[in-house]
Amino acid sequence: MTETLAVIERLANELVEAVAALSRPAEREPEERYLTTEEVAAMLQVSERWVRNHRTKLGGFGTRKMLRFPESAVKRWIERSRK
């Protein structure tokens, strides 16, 4: 069962990356880094639950279990919240 979940998670990650690649303009811009819920929580020093509950404000996309956050969106949120 855990092997199946690991395969599903890996495929979901690949799908998220593929969709992100398709949405990029033809001209190469700097690569966007996509953060996991865990990474965003560590960056903001909050719980993963807090990150999931605020996912739209942080630019999150994907399913509740497979959320990803553009690093640039999280950094913009940090800058806005400091003001």
**Tally of extended strands?**
2
* Strand numbers in spatial order across the main sheet: 1-2
As a percent range, the share of helical residues equals 55-70%
Biggest β-sheet: count, sense, barrel? 2 strands, antiparallel
Low-confidence stretches: none
What is the number of independent domains? 1
What is the strand content?
Answer: under 5%
Cα radius of gyration in angstroms = 14 Å
Topology:
Elements: H1 2-22, E1 34-35, H2 37-44, H3 48-53, E2 69-70, H4 71-82
Antiparallel strand pairs: 1-2
What does this structure look like?
The protein has 83 residues and is mostly helical. The protein has one domain (2-25, 32-82). It is 57% helix and 5% strand. It has four helices and two strands; from the N terminus they run αβααβα. It has helices spanning 2-22, 37-44, 48-53, 71-82, and strands at residues 34-35, 69-70. The protein is flat. The termini are far apart.
